[in-house]
Amino acid sequence: MTYKSQQNRIAFAGQISKAGESLARATGEQNVGTTPVVAGRFVALAAAGIKELSAVTDVLAGVVVRSPVQDSYSPDEYLSVGKIGHGDGIWVELEGAAARGDKVHVRAVAQAGKPAGKVLAAEVTDKTVPTDLYIINVAAGLAEIGRL
Length: 148
Known about the structure:
The chain contains no helices and 13 strands. Strands 1-9-13-12-10-11 form a six-stranded antiparallel sheet, with no helix packed on it. A five-stranded antiparallel sheet has the order 2-8-6-4-5, with no helix packed on it. It is mostly beta strands.
């Protein structure tokens, strides 16, 4: 996505929307998985970095933050993973419909064109994991999420 194409958008996936009172906003991590990870999607903790989510038992590491030059990170690349603390917010990719105040569920298992790491407002049995996060705003396939 170019700078010019972003001018008419409210936000983009992986954009930190606000930084609150927490101490850490993002950490540098290496994609140690076998597939690329995408800005605006949740990723899982791995032994020596992060990886794409693949199971409901994966531990959420945070959301991939988009850099000024790329929005996808191949295996072995380093990237920033956003942590969502008190007062923080980040724009993520949204699957389906949602409204302000909906609880955030994260797709942990990809399914028929629905990639892992996206946010949903409703649980999908054996495919999503619940979080203690909420949807703050919704715009054009994106959701701004944070803690209430």
